Every structure is written in structure tokens, then in C-alpha cells.
Amino acid sequence: MTSPNRFDLRKDGFDTYEIFDVRTGRTVSVGGKPRAKLKLDEADIYLDLLN
């Protein structure tokens, strides 16, 4: 049995997304920058790398 992913996507605008930590509900920061206001394709790439 595999464990669920730690990170997921949620909408944060009309057509933008943010990556958040499912355990804390907080937006993920990479390199000191929040991963928010991302287009879906960019957010999906980050999500794959983080999970």
C-alpha cells in the first residue's frame, strides 16, 4: 500500500494554482518563494518533483 502524496494543488485564482502541504494546509515555498499564482502546467511540474 502506498502512502498518499504530501503535496497537492488547489486553485488560488481564476486560472492559477498553488502547491500546498496536505499535512499543514500551508503554501509550499521553494527557494524562499511561495509556489503560488502558477499556471497549471508549471504547477504540475513542481508537484511531480516535490512528491
Q: What does this protein structure show overall?
A:
By secondary structure, the chain is of the alpha+beta class. The protein has one domain (7-50). 22% of the residues lie in helices and 27% in strands. It contains 1 helix and 4 strands. The chain has one helix at residues 40-50; strands at 7-11, 17-21, 29-30, 33-34. The strands form 2 sheets. The chain has a two-stranded antiparallel ribbon with strand order 1-2. Strands 3-4 form a two-stranded antiparallel ribbon. The radius of gyration is 11 Å and the shape is globular. It starts with 6 loop residues before the first strand and ends with a helix. The model has no long low-confidence stretch (mean pLDDT 93).
Provide a compact summary of the structure.
The protein has 51 residues and is an alpha+beta fold. 22% of the residues lie in helices and 27% in strands.
Helical content class: 10-25%
Low-confidence regions: none
Q: Can you give the mean pLDDT? A: 93
Give the spatial strand order of the biggest sheet: 1-2
| Straight-line N-to-C gap | 16 Å
Gross geometry: globular
Tally of helical segments: 1
Report the portion of residues in β strands: 25-35%
Please give the structural blueprint:
Elements: E1 7-11, E2 17-21, E3 29-30, E4 33-34, H1 40-50
Antiparallel strand pairs: 1-2, 3-4
Keywords:
alpha+beta; globular; 1 helix; two-stranded antiparallel ribbon; 4 strands; 51 residues; 22% helix
